[in-house]
Structure prediction request, 304 residues.
Amino acid sequence: MSSVYSIKQVSEMLEIPTVTLRAWENRYGAVNPTRTESGYRVYSSENIEDLKWLKEQVEDKHMSISQAVLLLKEYRKEKRQVHAFSEPPVGSSKEAFAKMSDQIYRTLYQFQGERANGLIDFGFSMYGYDSMFYHVLVPVLIRVGDAWESGRATVAQEHFMTTLISQRFYQFFHMFPIYPKLPKVLSFCPEGEHHQVGLMLFSLFLRKNGVEVLYLGANTPLDGVLDMIGEQHVQLICISTMSSELVPESDAFVSLIARRYPNVNFILGGKGYEGAAQPMYPDWVMKEPADKWQDWFEKSPYFR
Prediction:
C-alpha cells in the first residue's frame, strides 16, 4: 500500500510533465514506480521525495538530470548501509508484526493507554507508516471487534481500544497532500452504526491518493448533514454499514440527499450492503476488496 500516486497526480503535484517523468524513469532510472495489474504506474511517497529532489537539482542548481540521478543513487546506497542493521530480516517481519499487534491488544485490553501509545510510537519508528498501519493496527481493530461480538470484551473495553487507535488513525489524515481538482468526499456511518473500521480504512486510502475527506465517523445523525453537503461543496459521499438491517434506512437517507443534490455521487460499502438482497442503489455499492482499491481508483470516473 505504499505506492499510492498515479503519474497524473505526481505530474500535477511536482509540476513535472508526464513525458518528463517517463523519460527520467526510462532513460536514467531515476525512480522505479511499481505497476498495477492493468499496467498503470503507481508512485510511493519515497518516489515523490526522490523526484522532488531531482527537480531541485536540475532547476535550482542547474545540474543535468544524469548527474542528479547518479548523486541520488549514491545517496540511496549510503542510506541502505546505514539502516541495514536496524531493519528486521524479511522472513521475520510477519512474526514481528503479529507479536507487536498482540502486545498492543493486550495492553489496551487492560486499559493501559500510555503504554499502548508508547508501543505504537515505537512501531512507527521501526516499521514505518504503511506496515504499522496495515499489519499491526488494523489487525488490532479487527480483533477488538471480534472480541466484543463474542462477549470476550466489554463495551467499555471495546470503546477504549477503538477510540485510542482511531485517534492515531486521524493523525494521518493531515500527512498527505490534497489535490483540489479531485472531488471533496464526505464519509460517515448512518445513525445506529457504531462500527467504522472499514470506512476509516477506505477514507484514509482516499486521503493517501490526494482526496480531501470530511470524516464524520460512526453513528452520524441526519441533522446538519444535508446543509453541510451544500456548504462544503461535497461531490462524493461514502456511507458504510455492517448491519443489513440499517440498509433500508441508509438508502432512504441517500434518496433524500440525491433529491436535494442531484449531482452528488455515492459509494456504499460495508458488510451490510455486501449482504443486502435488494439494495436500492446497486450501482453505487462498492464491491472491490481492499487489495483492489488502487486499481478501482485509477479507473473510477469519480477521480478523473
Q: What stands out?
A: The longest helix spans residues 129-150. The mean pLDDT is 85. Strands lie at 3-6, 34-35, 41-44, 185-190, 213-220, 236-240, 265-269. The two ends are 21 Å apart (CA to CA).
